[in-house]
Specification:
There is one protein chain. With about 150 residues, this protein is mostly helical. It is about 85% helix and about 0% strand.
Length: about 150
Amino acid sequence: MSPGARSARIRLLETLLNSSSSALVAMASQLSEAEERERIYGGRARWQHLRSMGDAKSLLQLTFDAAAFAKCRLGDIEDEHKEFKEKSIELEQLLRQSESRRKDLERQNWAREHSGVSSFTTITDVSSVLALLLWSVKRSYKPNLVFVIELV
């Protein structure tokens, strides 16, 4: 190995050693801070109220029951979210269909007006259909969807 390559290799190893040392010092200080926090806020005082294994078992059972309940509730919320999503997709499709129907009726009205034929179908008829749709959604058991529809 040439002397230049050797000195470059030594500098590289010294740099790695310095960075490793500083990382170890930082980790040691973080560990001591965590131990200090544990000693102040927790430590043995956390477990002093337990007098027997029965107490510990009861506390663990309560903890597991709370975790199981939270997991079940999360599943229920996910199911509701899925239902909301499906319902909003259905309502968006209905809205698109009603919009296309309204545009078709506007085209038909325009064609009738320009051809001289009177028309009984107006934009207010389409508006009343949309109002009826919104009214039926408001009566459903998921009022949050009405907000989404009204924003669209």
